[in-house]
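Hi W.,

Here's what went into the run:
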Amino acid sequence: MARYACKLAYDGTEFSGYQVQPEKRTVQAVVEQALGKIHKGQPVPVTASGRTDAGVHAKAQVIHFDSNLQMEQQNWLQALNVHLPSDVVVEQVSKVDDDFHARFQPIGKEYRYYIHHGDVPNVFRRNHALHSKQPLDVPAMQTAAQYLLGTHDFSAFCAANTAVVDKVRTITNVSIQPNDGELEFSIRGNGFLYNMVRIIVGTLIEVGTGKRTAKEMETILASQDRTQAGKTAAAQGLFLWHVDYETDPFKKEETPG
Amino acid sequence: MARYACKLAYDGTEFSGYQVQPEKRTVQAVVEQALGKIHKGQPVPVTASGRTDAGVHAKAQVIHFDSNLQMEQQNWLQALNVHLPSDVVVEQVSKVDDDFHARFQPIGKEYRYYIHHGDVPNVFRRNHALHSKQPLDVPAMQTAAQYLLGTHDFSAFCAANTAVVDKVRTITNVSIQPNDGELEFSIRGNGFLYNMVRIIVGTLIEVGTGKRTAKEMETILASQDRTQAGKTAAAQGLFLWHVDYETDPFKKEETPG
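Here's what came out:
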């Protein structure tokens, strides 16, 4: 048996999220089906860095699985992609140490969120960006976002129905920048609570439209009360962009010499 | 009665092309259905600058229709987009002269075609670019493309089953440039034959992979024989990008004074 890590990109539009659910089309299910075919029907469970919700995309989700098949990495890539539907692509496969764990070992994650502002939606980005007709005050949003930096209890920015007890997380980086006619949010931290990025973006949008002041971010955060924050922004603008491990599982090994 | 011109963007992925066909989902059909709803069931036929095939997109298709409804342009925009599915967006509506004709009056068109080159497809561009695993010799393709410039009989680059008799067209501009990790083809001319851009791109790809020399473009063109040219490139990479009229129907009128 050997352990493999994969970097997955997927378009979340047609999925009921990452995690397996009965009767639903999920990313985990189609990946496990593809692995099952490669392993002649033998089930091969996969473990991801974390779930993503229905409609949320991944530019670089990380999963791991164990297999007794011996294949070159290029052959794994080909075999997996042949059996996957066109909205999931395995971009890299890497043999990793037996104790590598996609879910327990990330030291950080980056999410991005895209907003298209205009009178009418951009038809080619309808599933990959939120459309907003209202002009947004970007400097105010940038100011508000700075209150998120550092280590805080993020209860105010966590879906109320979560089972997680410890809601302290550290945000290391947050930026809001114009990019190719859209507004691109990037947020990095050591971990994220359920719906945390979408609630943060939803609240920042309310700052951008003038419904709240930038300074209110501080009060909302301190309240530790979900009802104080803004609406959960729509799923389609959100991308799991990058998962960081202490040792990059996909780093090409240097040839010694 | 007044005549209106609309600029439409659509994602061709889920359409059986532009033109109405029985039992098929087409762009023309959904636009005429939207107009029908706005006109209380009264049929409102629309005329486009030209058809696009199944899977082909439009960044700026132009259509016209006649209506006895009097609305501000902003209200037309809103009323149409409310009744259209999310993969068609009316971006502009303009009241035009009664003799404006979307199909007979274009003086030029621009098409673009996108190719993504890489080991694995870009999942977010799977319906909007052709994926090629083979490296492409871009300078050779650029050299080959230059033979298309000017006025020629383009029979070699026209689907064999076309009814059009005069196959002489003028290409005024052709470029092949790297753009955001993809190869972007832009081709402008006074008119295009059925499948012409896709056959041109398919032939240029064969030059790019070394199957043909750049110089062969000249021979193929001179042959006026479809069987001499390359394969028709896949629909999903193609966009109707712009339609040119002598007077831009969407140009905002200057306020006199």
